[in-house]
Amino acid sequence: MGVEIRVEGLTKSFGRQVIWQDVSLTLPAGEISVMLGPSGTGKSVFLKTLVGLLKPDRGSVLIAGRDVTRLRERDLYEVRKLFGVLFQDGALFGSMSLYDNIAFPLREHTRKPESEIKRIVLEKMELVGLLGAEEKLPGEISGGMRKRAGLARALVLDPEIILFDEPDSGLDPVRVAYLNQLIVDLNAQIDATFLIVTHDIASARQVPDNIGLLFRRELVMFGPREKLLASDEPVVGQFLNGRMQGPIGMAEEKDAAQVEQELAELDAGNHRGPKGGKGASGAGVTPRLLPSDGIARSPRWQAIAQREARSHPHEVADA
């Protein structure tokens, strides 16, 4: 499972406001990618453009050989069947039980009998750790459980691409850690292509295969996690360390001379030169989060585990 998404020269604006321009990247099939960026840089707009909910001004989004930006509505509907989406708030119906919420896409988009729907719903609820909560209403459960219910609903049509729109929003650090482990475990089991939009730095360090960063209306970088974490690009280092010194300001506009002075002071304080150092990680590349014990690992995950064991023999993040 999992399909490649190839984005080429994508530009989007609302009126005179350019959101981002000339964005090009490839989301590898079956891998987990994360898109970072300060608030207001159009990360959620990017997700909606991938699904075809928004039309770009220019560029293409190629999925399974089809350009989403140029499809007729009927053909776009077929491509959207490849997607599952976890929205920020879970987007659950408050008057429906968790079971009925999760069953909703199956009842709306398939003609499966209720017996088959029940089998699928319970299977997905077990996958996200919600068995036993079928009759609960969204208002009766925690935010973390609502996220998991939203994820189960995103999974019921067996998507090959899963989009996560700020899944950590509204969750405390402990629930975020559990959700991150769940995402990694799911990827190891279903091997779909995952794209996560997040502000959470710990998640970006531990979870993905690939990281991208949107800033000042462009894609600053996109590539393998290790490359981004070791990057000397000032905005990447600033964001991944959550510090004030760097190009990102409260209004996202800092004077170039001010940025240069801040970075020079930061380098002096760290007793290192402006280049070389330890990159954006500040202390080497963070160990990768691996699937939980008992989760069968695909060849890709086996290779990742072996690489992590070599790189971090005493601190591999294996739950």
TrEMBL record:
Q: InterPro entries in the record, alphabetically?
A: AAA+_ATPase, ABC_transporter-like_ATP-bd, ABC_transporter-like_CS, P-loop_NTPase
SUPFAM superfamilies on file: P-loop containing nucleoside triphosphate hydrolases
Q: Which UniProt keywords apply?
A: ATP-binding, Nucleotide-binding, Transport
Give the matching Pfam families: ABC_tran
Q: What are the boundaries of the region Disordered?
A: 265-298
PROSITE patterns membership: ABC_TRANSPORTER_1 (PS00211), ABC_TRANSPORTER_2 (PS50893)
- What sequence ranges are listed for the domain ABC transporter? 5-241
Q: Name one GO molecular function term.
A: ATP hydrolysis activity
In terms of superkingdom, the source organism counts as Bacteria
Q: Know the name of this protein?
A: ABC transporter ATP-binding protein
Organism taxonomic ancestry: Bacteria, Bacillati, Actinomycetota, Actinomycetes, Kitasatosporales
